Amino acid sequence: IASPKNIDSSDFCKQLEQWKSDGILQEFPQGSVCSISKNGNIQPIQDQTFYYGANGMGNIPLAMVDQAKKSSHFELEQDTWVSPSSGVRYQKNSGTWKLQAKGKTLGYYDQLIIAHNGKCADRIMSKTPAKDVHSLLRVNFNPTVPAHGGKKMTLNSLYSVTVVLPLDSEWSRALPPDFVCGMLADHPQVRSLTCQTRKYAATSQQQQEQEHEVWTILSSATFGKKHKASQEFLPSEVIDKVTTLLVQAVDGVLKTSVGGTPEPNDSSSGDKKDAQQTTTSNKPSQVLENRVQLWGAAVPLNVWKNQEGFLYDSNNNVGVVGDWLVEPSIGGAWTSGYQLAQHLLLEDESSKKNPTTVGMEGGFERSESVKSAGIAAIPQ
Predict the structure, then answer these.
(1) Least confident of 34-38, 96-100, 343-347
(2) What is the rounded distance in angstroms from the CA atom of residue 347 to the CA atom of residue 89?
C-alpha cells in the first residue's frame, strides 16, 4: 500500500495508522522500495511511505471483519459461490434482494452492495431491474485505454510469478543490500520485483538456517494479454513459459542469468522473440520452485469520476463500491466502501427513508498513474 496523495484520504490515513498500531501493517524501510529502469538503473523512491501486511495482506480483511463484529451484528459467509446467473434476484413486491448459493437461500436483504468488478459483476446485475447500475458494470479487458477514458470500465490482466532461488542468488548480489521491492515503469514485460525473504526479515537464528530466497514478479499488462490462458486451470506449458520469460526478463535488466543462458543464434519457429528466450540453456535455470497466477480482472485503467466515489440506486436499493470509482488502489477501494457506508447511514438518520440515488452521472477518465505503473495507482 502506498500512502495516498491523489484522493481525499484523511479517513484512510487514519485507518492506515490504526492498522499500523494494531500490527496489521508494517512500513517498508526507507530506501527499500525503488524504481528500476529497463537498463538496470536503481533509484530509491523518496518522499513516499509504503506499507505491507505484517503476516500477508489477508490480515487486512480479517481485521475489518473483527472490527465489524465488535460494533454490530455481523455474519460472514466464506467459500460461498453466488452464481452470476441465478444467485441474486430482486423481489419487486417487497423491494428486497434474495441471495442463494447451490440452491440454498442465504437470505433476503434490504440492500445489495456490489464490491466487485469484472465479468461476474456484469453478469450478476444483467438480469435485474437496476439497468443504470448494470450499464456502468459492463467491462472491457485490455492493456490500454484511450486518452479520453473510454466508454466502459477497462481492466488489464497481469501475471504473478513467485520463484524460489538458492540463498545469496544472483539477483540478491546484483541489487543493493537494502532493496526489497522495485517498480519497472517502462519495461515491456515486467512491472514489479519483490524479494519476499527480505520483506519478511527473519531473526538471526532463522537467517542462519535459511537455504532459499523467495521472489515475486508482476508482469506488464501487455505481457498478461499476450500469454492469457484459462486462469482457473493454467496449462503446465503456460506456467513454464511464463515463468521462464519473466525470470529471463528480470535477468535482462539486472544482467544476471538466474533463468539460465539461452543458446546463441537460435531461430526456432513461432514467436521468434519468445522462442529465443525459452530455448534449451547452456547454463541451467536456478529456479528451484515456482507458483504462477493469472490475475485476469486485475487493475482498472480508468475511473468513473462522479464526485461521490460510489454508486447508489435508491429505486432498487443497490450500491456499488470499488477502486474504479476513486482510484485503482487499496486506498481507493477502502475509501469507496467507506463513503457509501456514510451515505447510507447519514441518509437513514436524517430522513428516515431510503437514501437518494447518487453517482450515476459522470464519465470515465484514464488513470495516468496506472498508465505509468501498470500494477496500481502509485503516487509519484
Answers:
(1) 343-347
(2) 25
Amino acid at 122: D
Cα–Cα distances (Å) from 58 to 25, 52, 55, 259, 334, in that order, read 11, 11, 8, 30, 14
Going by C-alpha positions, the residue among 198, 240, 241, 234 that lies closest to residue 216 is 198
CB atoms within 10 A of CB 64: 15
Sign of CA dihedral 50, 56, 60, 63: negative
**Contact criterion met (CB below 8 Å) for 112 and 326:** no
Residue with cell 504462477: 292
Nearest to residue 162, comparing CAs of 226, 238, 256, 242? 242
Whether 169 has a pLDDT exceeding 70, the answer reads yes
Higher-confidence residue of 166 and 46: namely 166
> pLDDT tens-digit profile of 192-214?
999 999 999 865 455 667 889 99
Do residues 64 and 76 touch, judged by C-beta distance below 8 A?
no
- On whether the CB atoms of residues 193 and 144 are closer than 8 A, the answer is no
